[in-house]
Each structure stands twice: as structure tokens, then as C-alpha cells.
Amino acid sequence: MGDVAVIVKVMPESPDVDREALKAAIRAKVPVQDIREEPIGFGLVALKAAVVVPDRGGAPDEVERALRDVEGVGSAEIVESTLL
Amino acid sequence: MAVEKPHINLAVIGHIDHGKSTTVGRLLFETGSVPPHIIETYRREAEAKGKGTFEFAWVMDNLKEERERGITIDIAHKRFDTDKYYFTIVDCPGHRDFVKNMITGASQADAALLIVAAPDGVMEQTKEHVFLARTLGINQLIIGINKMDAVKYDEKRYNEVKDQLTQLIKMVGYNPANVHFIPMSAFMGVNIASHSDQTPWYKGVTLLEALDTLKEPEKPLDLPLRLPIQDVYSISGIGTVPVGRVETGVMKKGMKVSFMPANKEGEVKSIEMHHEEIPQATPGDNVGFNVRGIGKGDIRRGDVCGPADQPPTVAEEFTAQIVVLHHPSALTVGYTPVFHCHTAQIACTFTELLKKLDPRTGQVKEENPTFLKTGDAAIVRIRPTRPMVIEKVKEIPQLGRFAIRDMGSTIAAGMCMDVTPKQMR
What we know:
heterodimer, A: alpha+beta, Alpha-Beta Plaits, 4 strands, 50% strand, B: alpha+beta, 6-stranded mixed sheet, 6-stranded antiparallel beta barrel, 7 helices
């Protein structure tokens, strides 16, 4: 079994969440390899995080759940996945 | 300035160990898309050791090592160019738990490259991936019959595997006449970029030529607007702002919209993307929009926004074609797992098992079967336990697909064939 690069789209709970603090909290919780901001509108900015997970059962759920548990996160969802 | 070539998202699918990754590596290598520093390092090493020629295996190992060291958002997309297009590749993970994300995720593949090893022929995952490709709405397919070197480039073996595959793809609704079958060896570089004298009996296209015969994807602009809600915000000084990605149709400022199954109507006051106000949003756009007449509590994730005069369809019940990817025992009437469809997650009950299909012929194998098990394809009737938007895959394919999950793992995937709509007014 190989490894999978997933990109998780993380939405903050509100536009008032401190983005830098949120990025730090995400990095502390999940071994994120890259984070990029994707501005939406009305002050809302999505964060896209690249994470490497093993190609096995449960792996996508685990990373989504871990990110949803981070304070300030409204939603977290894998939007792309590709084998390394 | 040169005009950017049209873009195609290519999914590489197939059974484990049939050579998907090697094919991806070979495509990058042949199109000059391997990073120059890797080629340069190799050149230096080869010179030091007194070797003159490129070894593809070395390049593959180093590409993989580099990606393992650090992945960025950009290089998560492997990219290569052909004469006509630029491609980004999704090398599909093997585990079925990633299927849900491929159905509900962002980057819909425009075409699939199915890799099948000539010595093995059609295997379990080959069948599963072909069905999934169809369910995901990937209508363009290329088939690489790989590892031809391992069968000594035998035309007879190629034709046997081609016949197996022809049966399989016919069953799920691909027309074999529109599909290129290519005898190839990704590892040896046979029939990838140039015609090989190892297969003098093969008169068809190379893999790169086949990729250039694909059709450029069209945005589904002519379908009615469908925007599944991802999140809803209440922003001070502005009001209610739902966020989501336009799947089909066009959202315009001033438009009267309906949210289903919430059954609420409002008017789009403004639309923003990349922090700029835009007059309209089209398929693929990730937007936030402000709606007059809707409170934050009125709508939620899983609702779908559409035009007030063509509202999204709420299903009383629906019939679906499914494939059971994995079930520990047997699936029967009364089973109520969770359906993941666009942004909705709703428990739905199997109320009738109508037909079991034969994966080899596509014919009905059994009417009204009593149970379904792993590997079965079937037509079933489903009743959502609470209101849910789903559309016929023939009318709005983007909202007609779903993954079925239970106890934290993916059980099945399917598409909606027919809907009995619930009267909402």
C-alpha cells in the first residue's frame, strides 16, 4: 500500500477567526505539508491543506475528523486525493 | 503571449500492481515533465559511473522520493503537456474509502486511463474502477493493456484481454468503438510516445496520440442552477451568506432562488469569489453569496440552491444502480446506511432489490434478488429517512451520484436512475 496526497478544504467558523492562529493550530494537530489561503468572499477565507495519509481504510475520515476538532474550524473536507 | 492549452483532468485507474504509477511516471518522462534537477542529478551520477543512457527506473524512484520528502498544493497535481492539451493527473488511491471523496470532491475527472496488466487481465479492482468511472460521470475512456513485455508482446494474449475488457465496459454503458485499446509497456516505454517495432501487428495510436483524441470538457452551463450548500454564515452588516461550489448552470445577481429541501426562497443580492464581487457564477466557481429573505437558521449544509422556477428535486424515493464495493455479509431490504450525495449525508433505506446484473454481460442475472453481496451490481429502490435532494443522473449528472457508507467504511457507490419527487408546495 502506498501513500496518498490529500488536499483538505478547511472553512473557519466565522470571518473573525484569526487565520495565522488557525494555521498554527492545524499544523499542531495534523502533519500538514503545505497550507494555502483561498479567499471566498465577505471576509471568508478557506484554507487548503496538503496532507499525506496512508492508502488504507479509515485514513480519509481520520484526517477530516482531526481537522474538524481544531478550535475555530467550521468544516473540513477532502477535495482532492492522488497517490504519491 | 502564448494562449494556454485547454486543460483535461485525467484519472488513472486500475487494479493494484498493474502499473498505474509506472504509467504516470512514463508519461511525465516522455513529455519532458520530470523536474530538470532530477534529470540533471541522474546525468551526473551516470557520468560518474560511466553509464551513458537514461534508466527510467532510476527516475521513477527519485520522483517518488522527492514527493515523499515534501508535497505542496501545487505538486500534488502532477502535470504534463501533449500537443493539444495540458493534463493534470489523479492517480486514484486503491482503497475504497477514498471513493466518497472522489464522488463529492472538487476535481471531477474529464477522462479516465484504465491500466490492465496483460498477464493478469481483468481483476476485481479493474471491474470496480470501471463501474466507478462510469458512476463518476467520466464518459471518455482510454485503455492501456500494460506489461506486454511480460507476455512477449503476444498478439493473441492482447486480444484475449481486449475481449474481456470489451465485455466489461459494454456492461456499464461505454461504447467499445469509441475507446482506444493500446498494447503497451510503461516500464519499457513501448507504444507510449512512439510506435514500437515490438508490436508490428498493432496499427492503432500510441498512448500520447490517444490522449490528444480526447474531447475538451464543456462546462454544464445549459443545465438549471444547482449549488449544494457547504456552509452557512451570518456576517454582521451583510446578513446570511451561504458558501458552496456551483455544480451546474449559472447564478446571477438579482436571481430568485429556492433552497431545497429547506423549501425557502430568497433573492441573490450579491455574489463574491476571490474576495471580489462578480455578476454571475458558473460551474466550478467556489462562491459566497448574500441572499435576501433567508435567515442563517433557515438553511444548512446539504441543502441545494436552484432557480425558484426550477427548484432542486426532493426525493420521496428513487431507483438507483449501485455496485457493492464491500459488505461484510449481505445487504437486504430494510438496510439503512448513510448516503453521501453532493454535500448531503442522509440515512436511506433499501426498500426493494429489483434486479441483480451480471457484470460480464450486463444482462439481468436475477429478478428481485433476496440479498446483494460484495461485487454485485444491482438496480434498487431507496427511500430517504428525511428529505433529500437528488437528481436523475441522465438529467443533472453532477447531483445524481452517491457513495454509501456504514460503520465508517464505504459499502457501495451508485447513481440515481429515476426519482419519485416529493411535493414541496
